[in-house]
Amino acid sequence: MWAALQYYQSFMSNIFISHNSKDNDFAQKIINYLDSIGHKSLYLDFDPRHGNPAGCNWEKELSRLLIKSDDFKVEVAHEALLRTWERLAKWLEEDRNFFICRKRLGNSLKSGIEQIKMMQNY
């Protein structure tokens, strides 16, 4: 059994969990679960067993982990874009009234179509 587990672990990926700090509890649950099923190469910045030690240069540590990895995936959270991309925030603000009108028009159109269908059934 132990040899089978070691063989299985040799194919497990290094897992790096990046998250919004609002999701710390959920990220910790994911790390705890992965740890419980045998993943040993895990990274969660604030986790005492799988993260950065106090005083660590986190940028250097992340660079080291990226260089060491075979593959990586980058996903940009919508919240991060809205919070930090000033041009996008400006566009959304400028077009807010358009989006509101378009939504109202769509709702009115849907309601009108439903009324016509109801009248045709009588």
Describe this structure as you would to a colleague.
The chain is mainly alpha-helical and 122 residues long. It folds into two domains: 12-75, no CATH class; 78-122. Helix content is 60%, strand content 5%. It has six helices and two strands. Strands 1-2 form a two-stranded parallel sheet. The model is unreliable at 4-9 (pLDDT under 50).
Number of helices: 6
User: Mean of residue pLDDT?
Assistant: 76
Please estimate the helix content.
Answer: 55-70%
Largest sheet: 2 strands, parallel
| Extended strand count | 2
Query: What is the gyration radius calculated from CA atoms?
Result: 24 Å
Runs in which pLDDT lies below 50 for 5 or more consecutive residues are 4-9
Domain module tally: 2
Instruction: Report the structural category.
Output: mainly alpha
Q: Name the quaternary structure.
A: single chain
| Strand order of the biggest β-sheet | 1-2
Order of helices and strands: HEHEHHHH
The termini sit apart by: 70 Å
The proportion of strand residues reads under 5%
Shape: elongated
